[in-house]
Design goal:
This protein is an alpha+beta fold and about 500 residues long. It contains ten helices and six strands. The chain starts with a helix and ends in a 14-residue tail after the last helix.
Length: about 500
C-alpha cells in the first residue's frame, strides 16, 4: 500500500513537472530599449573652460571623454568637513533608510512569489464526535450510532504554470524589485548632491555676509567722516542724508543673508538625520573647497546605463510588458492537481493501524467563458500601460540628456561669469580706492564716492555667487552623469 501511494504521488508530481516544462509563456518577451544613437550632448564637444588666476574656484576645467565616475565623487572637492558630513548623512538620513526598506520589501515579494513554482503541502488533523439517526444505517461498520472519528491527513495541491502566468508574475515582481534598487541609488545620489550643494551655498552665504559686514563698517566710517565735515560746513545735509540712506540699505541686506544661512544649516542638519537645534560641527567656507579640474564625461551610450532614473523607467517598462502576459494568461485555462493521503479511525489508538488509510488524486481545469468583458479590458489596459511606460522611458532619456547638456553649458558660462565677476571686483576695488582718496583730497564730490561704494558692494557679492555657481554646477554634472553609484560598495548592484 505504501509503495502504491508513493507511486501515485510521484505520478502527480511528474505530470505537473511535464506540464510546466512543456507549457508556453504567453505575452511579449521583453527586449531592452537600444541606447540612443546620439553622438554627443551638445552640438560641438565642450572645450576646456576658461580660467581666472588668483581667484578661488577659478581653475580651468577639462573633460575626460568616456571617463569613469568615482563612487565618492565629492571627495574631489578636497574638503574633510564635507566628506564627514556626507558620510554621516549616508548613515542617518531617513529617506535613504526608507529606500533601503523598500528594496527589502520588493525582494521579499519576489521570494514569496517563487513559492508558486512548487506544490503546496499541508498537514491536517480533525477529531469529531457524532451520532447517526436511528432511521438511517449506522455510519461505521461497527453498527454503532454514536462514534468518534479521528482523521490525520496530508494534502498536496499544485497549479502547473502551463501558460506562464507564474513566470510572468515573477518577471513583473523582479522588475519591480529592480525599480526599487535603482530608486535607492537615485536617493543616494540625490542626498549626496543635496548635501554638497547646500554646503556650497552655506560657504557662499558666509562670504556674502562677511563682505556685507565689511561694507557696513566702510559705510559707518564714511558716515562719521561726513558728519564731521557737515559740522564744519564742508558738506551739505543732503550728503549726510545720502550716506545714511546708503548705510541703511547695506544694513538691510544683511538679515536676509543671515536667514538664508540659518536655513541652509537647518537643511544640512535634516539631510544628515539630525534636528535643527543640534548644531553641526562642520562649517563651510569657499576658501576651503577645491574645484575639480578634470571632469569625467560619460559617452552618450553609457548614460542610459548610469542614470538610475532611466534604469527605473526601463524596469517599469519591463514590468508593464510582463503584465500583458499576466492578463493574457488569466484568459486561458487554469489547471489544478490535488492529492490527499491520510488515515481515518474510530479510536485514536488505531489511527495508524492497517486498513485505516485513504487517498485520492484529482485534477481540474477551469476555463473562463464569460466575465462581462473584465478580462478582455484588463488585457487592453495592460497593453495601453505598456505604451505609457514606453513613452515615459523615452521622456526620461531625453530629460537625462538635457540635464547633462544644461550642466555642460552652465559650466562654460560659470567660468566666463567668474572671470567677469573677478574683473569687475578688481575694477571696483580700484575705483573705490581712488574715489576715497579724491574725496578726502577734495577733488571729487560725495556722489562719486557713493557710486563707487555701491558698485564695489555689488561686485563683492557677485564674485561670491559666481564662485558658488562653479562649485555647485560641477556637483550637478556628477549627479547628471549618474553619480558613480555602480562604484559604491554600499549600494547593491544586482
Amino acid at each position: 500500500m505504501i509503495h502504491t501511494r508513493k507511486f501515485r504521488f510521484a505520478s502527480v508530481l511528474a505530470i505537473g513537472a511535464l506540464l510546466l516544462t512543456t507549457g508556453c509563456v504567453v505575452g511579449p518577451n521583453f527586449k531592452r530599449p537600444a541606447a540612443p544613437a546620439n553622438g554627443g550632448y551638445t552640438p560641438t564637444p565642450p572645450p576646456p573652460t576658461s580660467s581666472t588666476p588668483n581667484v578661488g574656484g577659478g581653475e580651468a576645467q577639462g573633460f575626460v571623454q568616456g571617463g569613469d565616475i568615482s563612487g565618492e565623487w565629492w571627495t574631489l572637492f578636497h574638503s574633510k568637513p564635507l566628506n564627514d558630513l556626507i558620510e554621516r548623512s549616508l548613515k542617518a538620513n531617513p529617506d535613504l533608510k526608507a529606500a533601503q526598506a523598500a528594496l527589502l520589501v520588493a525582494r521579499e515579494n519576489v521570494l514569496a512569489q517563487r513559492g508558486a513554482y512548487y506544490p503546496s503541502v499541508a498537514a491536517g488533523f480533525s477529531a469529531s464526535r457524532s451520532k447517526s439517526s436511528n432511521e438511517l444505517s449506522p455510519v461505521p461498520n461497527s453498527n454503532s450510532f454514536n462514534y468518534s472519528l479521528f482523521t490525520p491527513q496530508v494534502s498536496v495541491s499544485y497549479v502547473p504554470d502551463v501558460f506562464g502566468l507564474n513566470r510572468r508574475t515573477m518577471e513583473s515582481l523582479t522588475a519591480q524589485e529592480q525599480q526599487t534598487r535603482f530608486a535607492l541609488a537615485a536617493t543616494n545620489i540625490t542626498l549626496s548632491s543635496n548635501v554638497v550643494v547646500a554646503a556650497i551655498q552655506e560657504a557662499s552665504l558666509r562670504a556674502q555676509i562677511a563682505a556685507t559686514h565689511e561694507l557696513i563698517d566702510i559705510n559707518n566710517n564714511m558716515l562719521q567722516i561726513l558728519r564731521n565735515q557737515y559740522a564744519k560746513g564742508y558738506v551739505s545735509r543732503l550728503d549726510v542724508a545720502a550716506q545714511e540712506s546708503q548705510l541703511a540699505q547695506v544694513t538691510a541686506s544683511l538679515p536676509p543673508l543671515l536667514k538664508q544661512l540659518a536655513q541652509q544649516r537647518d537643511l544640512l542638519a535634516a539631510l544628515s538625520g539630525g534636528f535643527p537645534n543640534q548644531d553641526l560641527p562642520e562649517k563651510f567656507e569657499l576658501s576651503t573647497l577645491q574645484l575639480p579640474q578634470e571632469l569625467p564625461l560619460s559617452l552618450p551610450s553609457q548614460l542610459v546605463e548610469q542614470r538610475p532614473d532611466v534604469r527605473q523607467a526601463e524596469e517599469n517598462l519591463h514590468s508593464a510588458s510582463a503584465q500583458i502576459g499576466i492578463a493574457v494568461a488569466n484568459r486561458l485555462p487554469n489547471i489544478a492537481l490535488t492529492a490527499d493521503v491520510g488515515s481515518m479511525a474510530l479510536t485514536f489508538s488505531k489511527i495508524f493501524a492497517g486498513g485505516t488509510g485513504f487517498w485520492d488524486i484529482g485534477a481540474g481545469i477551469t476555463q473562463p467563458i464569460f466575465e462581462g468583458g473584465t478580462l478582455l479590458h484588463r488585457e487592453r489596459a495592460a497593453k495601453a500601460a505598456y505604451t505609457q511606460a514606453a513613452e515615459q522611458y523615452r521622456s526620461t532619456v531625453l530629460t537625462s540628456f538635457q540635464n547633462v547638456a544644461d550642466t555642460l553649458n552652465a559650466l562654460q558660462q560659470d567660468a566666463d561669469g567668474l572671470k567677469a565677476a573677478a574683473a569687475a571686483k578688481d575694477a571696483s576695488s580700484v575705483t573705490l580706492d581712488l574715489a576715497k582718496k579724491q574725496f578726502q583730497s577734495g577733488y571729487a564730490n560725495y556722489l562719486a564716492l557713493l557710486s563707487a561704494e555701491q558698485a564695489h558692494q555689488q561686485a563683492v557679492i557677485n564674485l561670491a555667487q559666481a564662485q558658488a555657481n562653479r562649485y555647485a554646477d560641477t556637483a550637478a554634472l556628477f549627479q547628471a552623469l549618474g553619480g558613480g553609484w555602480w562604484n559604491r560598495a554600499d549600494l547593491p548592484n544586482k
